[in-house]
Amino acid sequence: MFKKILIANRGEIALRVIRTCREMGIKTVAVFSTADKDSLHVKFADEAVCIGKPSSADSYLNIPHIIAAAEITNADAIHPGYGFLAENSKFAKICGDHGIKFIGPTPDMINSMGDKVTAKETMIKAGVPVVPGVEGLLESVLHAKKSAKEIGYPVILKATAGGGGKGMRVVWEEKDIEKAFETAKAEAAASFKNDGIYMEKFVEEPRHIEIQVAGDQHGNVCHLSERDCSIQRRHQKLVEESPSPFMTDELRERMGQAAIKAAKAINYESVGTIEFLVDKHRNFYFMEMNTRIQVEHCVTEEVINFDLIKEQIKIAAGEKISGTSYYPKMHAIECRINAEDPYHDFRPSPGKITVLHTPGGHGVRVDSHVYAGYVIPPYYDSMIAKLITVAQTREEAIDTMHRALSEYVIEGIKTTIPFHLQLMKNEDFRKGNFTTKFLESFKMQ
User: Fold this and answer.
1) How many domains does the chain have?
2) How does DSSP classify residue 130?
3) pLDDT single digits (tens) 262-303
4) From the candidates 207, 227, 252, 292, which is the catalytic residue?
């Protein structure tokens, strides 16, 4: 087992990793930008190293500085968390070149799933259902028009190196395809330095349901059930839950086995997530694989009573997984508490937290790195906490969430708490009647 782990991240996920390491008797090293010098992950780690100025490029994406921090503190492993360098194969390789274990999959595994066209081809070979679409990248507007006719409208154009909705356009009629193609290419080039675009059939009334998987270095793979992440705004998740209210036992079994096939196709090592689109007829299609721990991993932890960070560390150290797949015993919901104003188009709201009271009680978990007096910097993601509730039934989990949200006091900044409070009382949400388009018609009161 590792003696010392450097966490190449910030905020709540850095603190989350530190807590598990402490339980496992592993020393920790926090890295931080000058803007994060007062963050809790810096205070809770055994050692802390400043790696640069506030901008991500100068700090959390600065590979030489992070490797130097690991070397001067004699860290024998690096946990990348999520975001930043978590799915950067170059970083994973450099860690290995310096004799430092990257807690995650190998560079080849990251590359095989990082490019969406390559990932789709891999899944087809593995027998995992994929959304009907064009093989390879679109070469021209003419190619796009011809392909759309073959697939049938509506279609969706996607950036091959994309994420977060960038370089993505839905096209309902042929007259709109030229503009959509050119706009998607330009946006992809600006966002990812790669203007490659591919086309798929647009799945109507979709659910975003993902399967948590774990694979070890000995060829064993299991799944740890599903999460429903359909409540999202501009392709950014706001609420996640497990089990999905749309799920059936038969569908869970089929999706779980498909996820295991997907992971085995690349000999996957570490924990990861296979993301699927599920249509209203419960047909499911591979969307992408996240080769890292996810923000919403806590939901799965609560419904199966399982520490995914601990599992990730043990796998990286060469230990075997149990090989047994897990099924939800409870119901859990997570609300992402962001420093944003839901009454003004979720405008970012950095600044100083003047008053903070976090909720508690039975079935309530809060993962956060903030405290009263903490100044939220404007340079990073706006998420400041994750509020998770767990209960025997979905209805009880929602009721507990509403109670916990009503106890949550954060003053000095705007947060998404009012949005979540209203969502928990929404009849369609409570009935499980929603898709990824749900928030397009949701109005703040």
Assistant:
1) 3
2) B
3) 999 999 999 999 999 999 989 999 999 999 999 999 999 999
4) 292
